[in-house]
Amino acid sequence: KARVFSFGDKKADGNSSMKNLLGGKGANLAEMSSIGIPVPPGFTITTEVCTEYNALGREAVIDLIKEEVKASIASIEAVMGTEFGNKKNPLLVSVRSGARVSMPGMMDTVLNLGMNDEVVLGLAKKTKNEAFAWDSYRRFIQMYGGVVLGMKPESKEDIDPFEEIIENLKEKRGIQLDTEFSVQDLQDLVFDFKDVIRKRKGLIFPSDPWEQLWGAVMAVFNSWNGDRAVYYRSMNGYPADWGTAVNVQAMVYGNMGNNSGTGVCFTRDAGTGENVFNGEYLINAQGEDVVAGVRTPQQITKLGSQRWAELAKIEETDRAENYPSLEELMPSIFEELNEYQDILEKHYRDMQDMEFTIQDGKLWILQTRNGKRTGAAMVKIAMDLLKEGMINEKEALLLVEPNKLDELLHPVFDPQALKRATTIAQGLPASPGAATGKIVFFADEAGKYKNSILVRIETSPEDLEGMNIAKGILTARGGMTSHAAVVARGMGKCCISGAGALKINYKKRTLTVGEHEYHEGDWISLNGSTGNILEGKVATIEPELSGEFAEIMSLSDKYAKMKVRTNADSPKDAKVARNFGAQGIGLTRTEHMFFELDRIKAMREMILADTVKGRKQALEDLLPMQRSDFEGIFEAMEGLAVTIRLLDPPLHEFVPHQLATQKDLADEMHISLQAVKNKVAELEEFNPMLGHRGCRLGNTYPEITEMQTRAIIEAALNLKERGIICKPEIMIPLVGTVKEYEAQETIVRSTANLIFEERNDTVEYLVGTMIEIPRAALMADKIAEKADFFSFGTNDLTQMTFGYSRDDAGKFLPIYIEKGILKVDPFEVLDQEGVGQLVKIGTERGRSTKPNLKVGICGEHGGEPSSVEFCYNVGMDYVSCSPYRVPIARLVAAQAAI
Ligand code: ADP
Ligand code: MG
Ligand code: MG
Predict the structure, then answer these.
(1) Quick one: which ligand is closest to 357's CA?
(2) Which of 249, 241, 285, 254 is nearest to 96 (CA)?
(3) Which positions make up the signal peptide (predicted)?
(4) Using CA atoms, how far apart are residues 289 and 274, in angstroms rounded to an integer?
(5) What share of the chain is helix, strand, coil (3-state, %, to 5)?
(6) Beta bridge partners of 585
(7) How are beta strands 523-527 and 516-519 bridged, if at all?
(8) Which of 229, 315, 435, 876 has the greatest number of beta carbons closer than 10 A?
(9) Residue having the nearest C-alpha atom to atom 18 of ligand 1
(10) Ion ligand 3 residues within 5 Å by Cβ
(11) 3-state SS class at 820
(12) Which residues form the catalytic set?
């Protein structure tokens, strides 16, 4: 089998469909080469070789690929008319990593490889450009030193050892820019770089090009298992056995002088999705100079340049002279680039992110890939490409990444207010959204103001509660994977992390940025989508399901075959979800209603009652409250099905545990404190989640089921009188045996019939059950003979199938995931392999006795893309998820059906 694939000279062994084998970069280099885009010739060592390297080690792998690599180098030499290692006419190459998905900055690249003390002289002579040759040499040592020889900063406080030398020399010479170095300076740098490598690592810098090449190839393979890459993989759930490919490619030089340069560009705006070609470039520069910001990069288009100058407050004459666009400076190169961006976007039928280099007036393309973009840009680009006729409806839907829609569902700043706002500083956009509040510096003070922004140097697990209370989180330290960032994303809370310009003084309770000082209680605003920290109170607006977002959603509904309902416990949630397109409610948890202040009292009286009579008395007080709640929810969901679950949690959760509250309760109920204490103790359970809960409550205290049924049916009848149609579905929780279900169903139906007689009116309703105990899934055929519908409660089903207590799993799940014992948290992503079998069995057996049985899911998984897809494949009628996940589930339902 081939381990090395060549490309260049308008030919290629591979193509863009071979990303798994050649990596994204290699596959696209091959593709570009075959469609006639000018790509420097090169070759790709496959991802499979990376896996072989991990198993066999360096020497064995070199033996495996040596011949193919030699032949491929020879074909590069033939195209370029140069020779690897030749002192007069040298070929230099880049060695670039490239996994099947882009992992920006996670792995390493070495440029100008093949350079040594003799080659540098030959190159200088051949090009008649000494500065260029020595600049290339110093760059090579710098990159090879870092990537292959492990020259890294020695401690957190240190900077890169090579950068340190550069900075010192600049200072000594009194210059600002790397382009100002003289030939002598560059020679000094080469000498000093080698010297520091010798001192730190005890190594003589390798001068043999082949030794350099193998060193760099192995270093790229090693970077696949470097800390950064491993973490990135675990975050995104990419398996370790994918491996990375290695691309070896002839160098083209952007650092040959003022007729050369390098840049990056996008076929559309990655932030807004606007269809404008844009990007940045630098004259006389190489590699990542643009991205690394060694100098202020210039804009590609004139329009972009003018927009930029406006923001930077630069006069037009100054701009045109000192920061001209590529369009103005090198019009013919710009025209050519513009043509390629157009060709590539049409070819890949998606927004492209490209790298290019201009060598002495000739343009080369070095990379293209489907560009990363914000949620807003993603949606706009998909719809625009559809309208432009470049893609069809199904392809447009597939261009939208479900989880990224989340960004569009958080409150957003009013664009007008944003224009007027003053930026304090910039951090990392760790969790999207818009937050406004008063500064607090301590988590336990987050509740001090109605709206607070928690400002910390960094956060720790103790801050959790405060983070939850605060409207937004801002940290001076930490990256996109810091505690603050991870937790905030989990909470769906706006967060900016790593805003290095902030000086936080906990003692004085101040936040200082340059000259400005802010105090506790001052208003600030966070734009979590951009990382901008803004002064004062910037107005926000609720996100709207409008424009391209609305268009994508209605397109989704056109293709989706499965419905999306919502989990909602209040009329407010129901309304939000309906605006997001929910087609009913899949779960209303009645217990949440009992926790409100005036109700908890009646609830406690009910629980503490010693006699059936006492309990019924208390339930009578609860009835009107429940009934009006249901009326509100039914009204918000007019015309759509609403599933209401009967009381589920163990009663112990409702009783007071503090002495003072127990006393109050005793007084109010005219019983002794001791009686209250006894009852509380009596309700205590060893395993509450496996204890007296669910239908076990309704079966031991039938009067609770009676009251709840009455509240539901009466609410429905009341609305009917007002001409509002509602479709209640009464759901019995935690059923494990057929008898358990039958006993509850009997109570529900007889209560309903009683009310129908009382009111001389009827309403249609269904009675069904949750399938959340493994036994219920196995007995589904029998249960379905009675039940009108099933709803898989995958939270409990996961808990009981794994035997992991959800409330205790925090102690070991993170460790399991870290050690790879579990790939993901099964409470977040449905375990299709195991728990999924029970879902499948339950559905199949249920429908074996009742073919038209309605089946849905109401666990947290109902809004998680891979789980939603699974539900569709199992044949469910609907998924139900929290209101803000509804659009995501609608999209996935469509994608699954395509
Ligand atoms: P990353 O994946 O981190 O972007 P790349 O392999 O794309 O790393 O390379 C880093 C930089 O070096 C890019 O700016 C790229 O354009 C540039 N580069 C890579 N190979 C060459 C080459 N053969 N000639 C000139 N520049 C190159
Ligand atoms: Mg990089
Ligand atoms: Mg790149």
Answers:
(1) 1
(2) 249
(3) none
(4) 26
(5) 50, 15, 30
(6) 566, 642
(7) unpaired
(8) 435
(9) 287
(10) 367
(11) coil
(12) 483, 858
